[in-house]
Amino acid sequence: MSAGKKKVWSDTTPLLHRRNSPPPPSYHSSSSFPFTVEMTSSSSPRRVGSLFLGIDVGTSSARAGVFDDKGKLLGTASSPIQIWKEGDIVEQSSTDIWHAVCASVKSACSLANVAGHEVTGIGFAATCSLVAVDSDGAPVTVSWSGDSRRNVIVWMDHRAVKQAEKINSFNSPVLQYCGGAVSPEMQPPKLLWVKENLPESWSMVFRWMDLSDWLSYRATGDDTRSLCTTVCKWTYLGHAHMQQMKEKNLRDMEACGWDDDFWEEIGLGDLLEGHHAKIVNLTWENFAQDAVLLFQVILWVLVLPLQLRRQEFCTEELTHSFQEMGLRAGIPVGTSLIDAHAGGVGIMESVPESDSEAKAMLPEYWLTEGGQSATGALLDYIIENHMASPPLAERAASQKTSIFALLNSILKTMMQERKSPFVAALTESTHVLPDFHGNRSPIADPKSKGIMCGLTLDTSEGQLALLYLATIQGVAYGTRHIVEHCNAHGHKINTLLACGGLSKNPLYVQEHADIMGCPVILPRESESVLLGAAILGAVAAKKYPTLMEAMKALNAAGQVVRPSQDPKVKKYHDAKYKIFRELYEQQLSQRSAMAKALD
After folding, report:
1. How far apart are the first and last CA of the chain?
2. Which residues contact 598 (CB under 8 A, 6 or more apart)?
3. What range(s) does the Carbohydrate kinase FGGY N-terminal domain occupy (predicted)?
4. What tens digit of pLDDT does each residue of 128-158 get?
5. Which residues, including other chains, have CB under 8 Å from residue 255's CB and lie 6 or more apart?
6. Residue 108: CB partners within 8 Å, gap ≥ 6?
7. Of 94, 99, 353, 532, which is most buried, counting CB atoms within 10 Å of its CB?
8. pTM for this prediction
9. What is the rounded distance in angstroms from the CA atom of residue 158 to the CA atom of residue 145?
10. Quick one: DSSP state of residue 139?
């Protein structure tokens, strides 16, 4: 693929200086450098062979990991990202994100004892945040503040609830592919919000991009979008696209992929100009039919196709992008993925032989997805806002362990002291509905609120441990609700594959196994999202003929966590799950009663 039009990057201007100590959670100041970088490395010597780099940009940090051709993590590092939180509005800076990416890549390669020219391929994964840039690639503000640095609407931003309701009121046929309704976390409502509230910014934006697509664009100068993001968050019809792709008719393919009537009726018809140029660039030569995954989403969003591409660019400006990361110019870059889906690529072939009936993601299959809007962030909120949290955090730091590990230990001691039959039974009087940031799936109710029952005046570490456990259980009951909904609509889900940071918490995993009543499979490599991103780079570098071949080569079987065989555990969780479901119904009743009172 040839390099595109020369870009004049404006994101080399340093931001505010980032201190070594973290600022308050409501606002994080930042700078280009120096960065606080957390790093880990493998103790085993690396093998001679191909090396792949995976980059994952999350809500609070950018991470990078270097993997060998066996899928072994050689070194990983992370660097924090600034974030502005003002009520339902959550914003970031693409400038700061890129600087964090560069810092984490350099540190990861250093820890892995890998020189930049040794990296064979790169892949990016990121949250579904929305990035706004002008024709030169410079940031365009999406903030009431007018600060041009704040050009990213973070995935969890809920400013566009009213816009989502307006879009859903049209009952467009395209909504059947995203669970019947768009979420305020999807891009059309956010785009409509900007158009209605920031007209000057709206007129300045030349490209609206998902964050993962912007990362590959920033690295290569090519703005071809991933079908993963456009289908998952933008209502692009991937199945129609794939059908036309097989017939090799590019014009019809693009026409079928977008429902132009949908964009017109919701008030965003101007995005159709120039063949939808501001929101997508899908060109025939960028598709590799033998490396396409086609997924569909039934619950909340999603028909999710994935296509991979090989990008090699050597212009002076793009050479600088690679140099910023400490890499050689021209390294193949894979088409980006949403972080959760990169995690799937990094785990789906990790099923042990004894559990080989669990199916992997296969080319042109459909994927049903459901998710919760807050899990890790919710646990952090519960812990950090409790009076016992500061001394507990200090003790964790002094013991060089995590606060989760200390809470797990406290719960074990409490179980023994109270002669509880099992750890989960400690929360018999404490119940949590985890909808602190709305309900994404399967109810799709952004107005849903979190509920905690069984609170007392106790401010001890033990009480915090109980709230922590009850919150974990609430999240697991939410997962059970999603899976039950899937199984009630034709699926037969009987195995969970876990990835992400919380999969490293044994209590979290065991509670999910017990509450779901099915085994939870953990991969050998715990950094599944980074591995998934690295696999994209491996395919882009043509080290493997297909994505599935790369997944088989780089994934490895891990531990299987099985549910308790104690019938009392099942009976207990069945009872708590019933209460969990009732909490939402009670909330609806209360919401209706108060609406009538204020009518």
Report:
1. 61
2. none
3. 52-249
4. 999 999 999 999 999 999 999 999 999 999 9
5. none
6. 39, 53, 64, 65, 66, 75, 76, 77
7. 532
8. 0.83
9. 17
10. B
